[in-house]
Amino acid sequence: MTGRCLCERVRFELTERPSVWGYCHCTRCQRRTGTAASASAAINASWLRFLSGEELVRAYRPPDGFEKLFCSECGSGLFSRNPQDPSVMGVRLGVLDEPPDVPPSWRQHVGSAASWEPIPDDGLPRFEGRRTTPR
Description:
Layout: E1 2-4, E2 11-14, E3 21-24, H1 27-33, E4 38-44, E5 48-52, E6 57-60, E7 67-71, E8 77-81, E9 88-92, E10 106-108
Parallel strand pairs: 3-10
Antiparallel strand pairs: 1-2, 2-5, 3-4, 4-9, 6-7, 7-8, 8-9
């Protein structure tokens, strides 16, 4: 499974296919993406292999929550990473060349969901804050 940023200078592959993914409705993801929610798949850092542009990847490290990794050239949001356990990562679905072949698994931070885009009644487990199950 491969992916890339908008300018295509950062390219990567995942050696394992993600088996779970979900939506985050937190205000940080809203501001980071300009949308109502962010779709990300859970990955282990050992699955990630850069094909090019690793030196362009930068991280925003908020005082709480996961680090946000992005391309410093085009600004594409690529990954998130747990600062307490860097092996726990997420990959943004929009940068993958093909979507995971599994349905979404959760919606987290629904307590801060955007009022201008109602969350669909899709039957996914909902968490008011961060989901409580391990990645």
